Amino acid sequence: MWLAILTLLYIGQRPATDWLSDSALALDDGVVCDARCRAATDVYTVGDVARFGSGGAGGARGVRLENRTNVTEQGLFVAARILGAAGDAYRPVPYVWSDQFGTRIQVHGSVPVEAVVRVVEGSVPDRAFVAHVEAEVRLVGVVGWNSPGRVRTAQALLTASETVPSPR
Hints:
Elements (H helix, E strand, L loop, with lengths): L30 E2 L5 E3 L2 E2 L5 E2 L16 H15 L12 E6 L2 E7 L6 E8 L4 E8 L2 E8 L2 H13 L8
Parallel strand pairs: 1-4
Antiparallel strand pairs: 2-3, 5-6, 6-9, 7-8, 8-9
């Protein structure tokens, strides 16, 4: 059982798409694009405004990832497609981090409500740990608390395969 001493609340943001309301682009809490980040023929979308994918990350509605790491990776992916590179769908491992009152918090992957969170390195009382986030007997996320080096190592498990069994 986890006891919350401090709760951080992220309010979120609303993508600025009003200026596109009269365009032919599909808008739904962002600009809707396919798994290759195309919003229309020869129109690509990257960054906070891009709601990409179908199925997989974000389910049928797709997902927006609101961080600078994603916009860089997504921009490189789209630039390569524009220059003619073949390739699969854009499938990043979502990543967020924050420094709060001297604490580095990192989350790779996802943390579904139904997930089981299990500390695998360090400890909560020591305020330095890495936890695996497991859903349906799969590793779906990694949380690091004051453990940047160790969380990067654990994050590699997420990128190795979409079907990595949870380490037990």
